[in-house]
Design brief:
Elements lengths: L2 E3 L6 E7 L2 E6 L5 H19 L9 H11 L6 H14 L11 H13 L4 H20 L24 H11 L16 H20 L3 H5 L6 E2 L4 E6 L4 E6 L2 H13 L19 H9 L7 H14 L4 H8 L4 H4 L3 H19 L2
Length: about 350
């Protein structure tokens, strides 16, 4: 038995070797007898892992926390935190990951459906749990091989903005606007003026590029070529890259921002880092514009819908949006069909002249 005290800690430490690999762990106790029992436990676990090939166990909560730590600098981090809380209301935090079954996932789905939650939200929660388990597996922990339950995702109404609705929204985001509760322009702090400008410019870029919010909120100047008017967008969600060319409006906006920028990021938070997920002001602007059924993602739908309505094919739009699966883009197919049938009408009219 090898338990030792260290000068910088009141606790007993366990130290031993197996197959020339040294293990050093704190027992978190000052009681020598307890430490000796823990040494035997640690040695048994290490032997099972190294000699017998048994993997370490991990709880559901620990697996989620380890995964979230790896995603800490992503724009979606706060959303993941919220989903973690939801999952741990159903799965006990002390439950070992290896004991979670497909039946548990099905019960989670049914419980959430009973709560009136949308299938898309349920899918996102399950995706987080499974991603956490995959991450834990890469770290060497024992996790189950699970299949997510089937979820019929309702496509719902494809909501996109008309040009009049876009004007209303941008009017509510206009940095120099006057409104109740908003100080006059000359009385605004520099931070407030910058926040108003950021919100307006962010929405314009989302409308004119069709990018996901996270892709624009974390955009680096190094990824923008203002000379040829292009952006290299890394699509972290689908692990691919797109090169998009800027509209005249977007190019002028970025040129203005570049002249005033002192950071590597196009949009920043208060600490000068990437903006991250900050959409409260944008949601309020939607409400003020009377667009209560719209979300940030509506801007992406708007871009895609306009491209198809003006003659681009679903396959071309897939490339612009960075979809890895054409089935995702097919939700816009009815718009392409309308465009095609109107062209057919024009052809018929031509030959009947």
């Amino acid at each position: 038995m090898t338990i030792v005290k260290r000068s910088n800690s009141p606790y007993w430490y366990v130290q031993f070797q197996i197959d020339q690999k040294t293990f050093i762990r704190s027992t978190k106790t000052t009681d020598r007898k307890v430490a000796e029992r823990m040494e035997a436990k640690f040695r048994s676990e290490a032997h099972q892992e190294l000699v017998l090939g048994t993997k370490k166990s991990i709880t559901v909560a620990a697996a989620l926390d380890a995964y979230l730590k790896s995603r800490q600098d992503t724009p979606n981090y706060r959303n993941l935190i919220s989903k973690r809380r939801t999952l741990l209301r159903f799965f006990k935090s002390t439950t070992l990951a290896i004991r979670v079954t497909n039946s548990d996932l099905e019960n989670f789905k049914l419980a959430r459906l009973d709560d009136g939650v949308t299938t898309q939200t349920i899918k996102h929660g399950l995706n987080l749990l499974l991603a956490a388990f995959r991450h834990a597996k890469r770290l060497g922990y024992e996790v189950p091989d699970l299949q997510p339950p089937s979820l019929r995702l309702s496509p719902g109404r494809l909501r996109y903005l008309s040009f009049d609705e876009e004007r209303r929204l941008l009017s509510e985001l206009e940095p120099g606007r006057s409104s109740n509760g908003l100080a006059a322009c000359e009385e605004r702090s520099e931070a407030l003026s910058q926040a108003l400008q950021d919100n307006h410019d962010l929405v314009v870029l989302l409308l004119d590029t069709g990018a996901r919010y996270s892709e624009v909120a974390g955009l680096l100047w190094d990824h923008i070529d203002l000379e040829d008017g292009s952006i290299k967008l890394w699509r972290s969600k689908v692990q691919n890259e797109s090169v998009l060319f800027l509209s005249k409006r977007a190019a002028e906006l970025l040129q203005r921002r570049k002249r005033a920028s002192t950071t590597p990021y196009v949009f920043t938070n208060k600490n000068g880092q990437a903006r991250g997920y900050s959409v409260i002001a944008l949601r309020k602007a939607f409400d003020r514009a009377g667009l209560h059924d719209c979300t940030i993602h509506t801007l992406r739908h708007t871009h895609a819908s306009r491209l198809i309505q003006h003659g681009m094919s679903v396959y071309e739009v897939r490339s612009i949006l960075g979809h890895s699966d054409i089935r995702t883009t097919m939700r816009y197919a009815h718009l392409e069909q309308r465009s095609v049938t109107s062209k057919a009408r024009d052809v018929v009219d031509q030959w009947q002249k």
